[in-house]
Amino acid sequence: MTKKSGLRENHNRHVLEFSRRAGSYSEHNIIQKKVAQKLIGSITSRPRRILDLGCGSGAIHDLIDWEIESFTGIDKADQMCALHPRGEHITLLQADFEDLKLLKSLGHFDMVISSSALQWASNLPRLLDHIASMTDEVAFAIFCDGTFETIYRMTGMEQFLPKSTQLRKLLESKFACRCEIERYRLDFPNNISKFRYIKRSGVSGGERRLSVKETRRLIREYPHSYLEFEVLFCVGKTL
User: pTM of this prediction?
Assistant: First the structure.
């Protein structure tokens, strides 16, 4: 695959909408699960040696429906690693996936996958450079700045997620890849349930950025029944 022929993108995919009742949020990562499903569904090769950066509780591993030789998962959260499937072919590392010394020690993989995690990288260009040196193929899903865009517009807070246009250019400079932007909407019965979801979902980054007064105003005045999410998918080969 050449870089020119391998690059395809779609900026204006239809918005995927999901509605849930207020009492059904026993699990708070519905969007991340949908993202993982789409990412695995986008992989046309059948890599046998896989590295999952930000492996969480095992969503990516559970979705793989082909035979694999080895699966290595890295996640900083011990609670997530504790929930991940175990097996003779599985290696789990509770660590920072930006630890280049650790990554260098792992050797070469057929594919490096990361779903809903790389947006937290402190130095994504450096990490991508190293990923390109240790794998034949990549499959990434990265949350972008269209996530919670109404909240950021209403509050004037600085968006900390990467801009999708800049991120796409960065990925295309490192990989011969197909890039695609998908937008999601998750519907809620009321504004309080929206902000409870933000707090528990892990998409927000876990930082308190508004005062109690500002939060109350936002809950009272938020104009939509849904929250917005924007995800950039990248699947391809190293250059």
Answer: 0.86
